[in-house]
Amino acid sequence: MSPEPPPLLAVDRLVKRFGGFRALDGVSFSLKAGEVLGLVGPNGSGKTTCINTISGLYPPDGGAVRFAGERLGGLAPHRRARLGINRTFQSPRPFASLTVRQNVALAAAYGRRRGVDEPVSLAALLAMLELDHLAERRAEDLNSAQQKQLDLARALATGPRLLLVDELAAGLNPAELTRMAERLAALARGGMALLVVEHLLSFLDRLTDRVIVMNAGREIFEGSLAAATRNPEVVRVFLGSDHAG
Ligand code: ADP
Ligand code: MG
């Protein structure tokens, strides 16, 4: 019997401090190829910090991130992209004066995973993300939904095996939401692992049943989305944040 391969992503007691404040206070979870894990929690609970630390934007202050069994240490984001880790941004910041095509081509050139010749052609990627008719537009001329599509195209251009998604659904209309959920589900069916930070639970529900709920830098629940919405502590944390505005 061959031993079980390591999970694609293993996050082990991750800590990230800002001054004396612990934005991540010992978060642990793992993710296999082809799996989608939802990450939910009130504003400020550490979701984006979690993505920033896994993607290499912030070095962790404790704990470890392992990718395919290898500890990543202080590896820079573009080096992680070449290993097969990429992410989208809650507030995308494309190169404003470059065109859509130039933005995606640049990401592909800079971060493309080693050993992947052409993960998917640029034209096919732009078509898949409904950006083909906007390819020669400058990024600054896109609306916010189109900028989210561009940001996803940029991340996918590197051929990731692990995609970290930060609130992609915000600002999309119902038809766009449906197509985005279908697109992410198809990526997972193709073997990509996805960590999806999302407030819109109906969107997450179309992608996965497994979620982690965070509060104040800690994991307070792991299990199915349905069970999360019935969990008293989860409910209290969400109602509390709503009342706090
Ligand atoms: P979420 O994405 O769940 O809304 P964040 O991960 O963005 O939460 O933030 C978690 C906490 O860490 C917040 O209190 C936030 O203000 C703080 N934080 C995040 N990034 C930084 C930073 N670069 N410098 C200082 N504090 C930060
Ligand atoms: Mg966030």
Cα shape: globular
What string, H for helix and E for strand, traces the elements in order? Answer: EEEHEEHEHHHEHEHEEHH
The N- and C-terminal alpha carbons lie at a distance of 54 Å
Number of domains: 2
**What's the level 1 CATH class of the largest domain?**
Alpha Beta
Low-confidence stretches: none
Listed once per kind, the bound small molecules are: adenosine-5'-diphosphate, magnesium ion
Strand content: 15-25%
In CATH, the architecture of the largest domain is 3-Layer(aba) Sandwich
Strand order of the largest sheet: 6-7-8-3-9-10
Largest β-sheet summary: 6 strands, mixed
**How big is the Rg?**
18 Å
CATH superfamily of the largest domain: P-loop containing nucleotide triphosphate hydrolases
| Helix segment tally | 9
Give me the CATH fold name of the largest domain: Rossmann fold
Could you report the average pLDDT, rounded to the nearest whole number?
A: 93
Question: How does the helix and strand content classify structurally?
Answer: alpha/beta
- Strand element count: 10
